[in-house]
Amino acid sequence: MSSRQSNLASTLHNLDGRNYGNLKQIRGRYSFGPVTVFIDRVQADPFASPSKVRVRVDRADAKFPLDLTTDRADRIAAADYLLRAGNEVLAKLDQRALILGRPGQEVLERTNILIDDAGFEARLLVNLPARGRRILGHQAADILTRDLPDFAERLFLFDRWSDAPAGRGGNTHGPSAEGLTDHVRLHRDQLELRSHLGEAGLIGLVGNGAILPRTSGDSDLPMKSSDAVAFTSPPELEHTVELSSGRTVTGMGIPRGVTVIVGGGYHGKSTILRALERGVYPHIAGDGREWVISDPTATSIRAEDGRAVTGDDISAFINNLPSGSDTRFFSTTNASGSTSQAANLVEAIEAGASTLLIDEDTSATNFMIRDERMRALIPAEREPITPFVDRVRPLLTEQGVSTVLVAGGSSAFFEVADHVIALDAYVPKEVTDQAHELVGVTAADLETAPTGSDPHTGSDSPAAPSFIAAPRVPTAKALRPASKTKTARAKGADRIQFGHDFIDLLAIAQLVDTQQAAGVAEALEYLAEIFDGRTSLTQALGEVEDTLDAEGLDGITGHRDHPGHLTRPRRQEIAAALNRYRELQLER
Ligand code: ADP
Ligand code: MG
């Protein structure tokens, strides 16, 4: 093996100045002391997508503490740490040709770093250097035979961490044992807190001291703490959890049920909701939202006019459309604000959401409410929409689905809210009793309230909405159109190319990591294999998740060796992408 090392270097030196196509021959496996370098794919020309390389170190050489890298959840956190540390190592080596991938604020399962029973592996992309179409062989040798093994040693040889030289840049620190331990422990604590919330009947917790606002609308970094008002829970909703690590977390517990957030414009309502939206994922230390934890199935629901819908049962919300369309199997290539929001909602429930997060800023007003005068003016049989305000309680009582709703412009939801929280200059107050008093409702009324009035009969008798239709079953070829010759590919963070079509992910708020779109694209390919004209969408999503849980992201990719840079999406986001595929075909 060791002879292969000098081979690679001398091969590259010999290739200097030759035609780029000759680089193909360096594919293979090379050994550099404890580091094995795999060159899995070599780009065809300097402008093609980068080459794929991996570096691997065995456990026996890496000597990582077992207690931090054995459990599946710990491995996710440790890999996340190594990814962040790996970027610092690359910065220190000043090697820009090597690309490890950049994570955001969330701790997520990714393919960039793999920790398994046998060892540690980093998957990199590398732009192999050229002048024109000529190989720069000496530079390529530096990258692949000097910097790449050096990177792997600095990152994966735990013994070398302690004496890693401090970064010259001042604020870059190499990996440290303490950093790894803290990272893994924080992740454990966040997961433990999340499972506690479920047991305590809460769908979310916002920790006291949390910094929710971000530096700007296009950044996910926390606002400077000197500018931000740190979160404090109203005493009535305060909830304290003692974690097994010894850490105690106190914050605002949001109980299952219907919670309405009110308050003046610009008082921080959407900021809280957005933090809950992100709270389905663990966060890194210093993010400010480490202790904002939500129901892992919580799904953000918005209006999205223009989207395509295929065979959704939106009849709980929409009936008797002037077009005569059957809203129990509703399809359109161009949904309206209200029909798109209804579709988003029933699809979220189909994908397993037990909490909905809804912001007035991104909702269709006619989907959400209809006031008394409008009800008087437009007879029920002329109005296709049963507004969400009439359905939010049956959703809870019949379907077990909670809602957190931002509504600063209307009191309509007071009568259906278990909790009303008012924000005043970013400070939340519990105002449920006042809100209930204003509309003459008591908590006891809510328990016994009818499950919604039926707009079609105009009577107040409870309608029997069904929020979930018969299971939707994609056809065997649903994701295998004849026109599709290439595998699905993410185009940036918000779009997937799927055959001749593009799937637009822009409205999917909980795709948070730029690599998640690539994860979704792989999941769609995996779903394509499962669909057989009998398996329902829900069952198929379950199968994808089972494989992801058992084998990780590598398990759903068609690639052997180097899967590229992917981040695991939730099943909700996989479903959301599938539902936006304009050519989706269902069995009927
Ligand atoms: P609303 O939805 O109530 O209109 P937003 O949540 O959009 O308000 O917040 C309005 C502005 O206030 C945003 O620029 C946001 O970054 C900022 N902001 C939100 N929460 C805080 C806070 N706790 N401290 C400081 N600024 C905040
Ligand atoms: Mg807002």
Q: How does this model look, in words?
A:
The chain is an alpha+beta fold and 588 residues long. Among the domains are: 5-160, no CATH class; 299-448, no CATH class; 489-579, no CATH class. Helices cover 30% and strands 18% of the residues. Strands 1, 2, 3, 4, 5 and 6 form a 6-stranded antiparallel β-sheet that branches. Strands 14-17-18-12-19-20 form a 6-stranded mixed β-sheet, sandwiched between helices. Strand 19 (419-424) and strand 20 form a beta hairpin. Helix 3 runs antiparallel to helix 5 (177-199), helix 13 (516-530) packs across helix 14 (537-551) and helix 13 (516-530) packs across helix 15. The longest helix has 23 residues, at 177-199. Residues 212-213, 223, 228-229, 263, 265-271, 426 line the site of adenosine-5'-diphosphate. Residues 178-442 form the ATPase of the ABC class C-terminal domain. InterPro entries: ABC_ATPase_C (IPR046834), ABC_ATPase_put (IPR019195), ABC_N (IPR046833), MRB1590-like_C (IPR049069), P-loop_NTPase (IPR027417).
Features:
single chain; 588 residues; alpha+beta; six-stranded antiparallel beta sheet; six-stranded mixed beta sheet; 15 helices; 23 strands; globular; binds adenosine-5'-diphosphate; binds magnesium ion
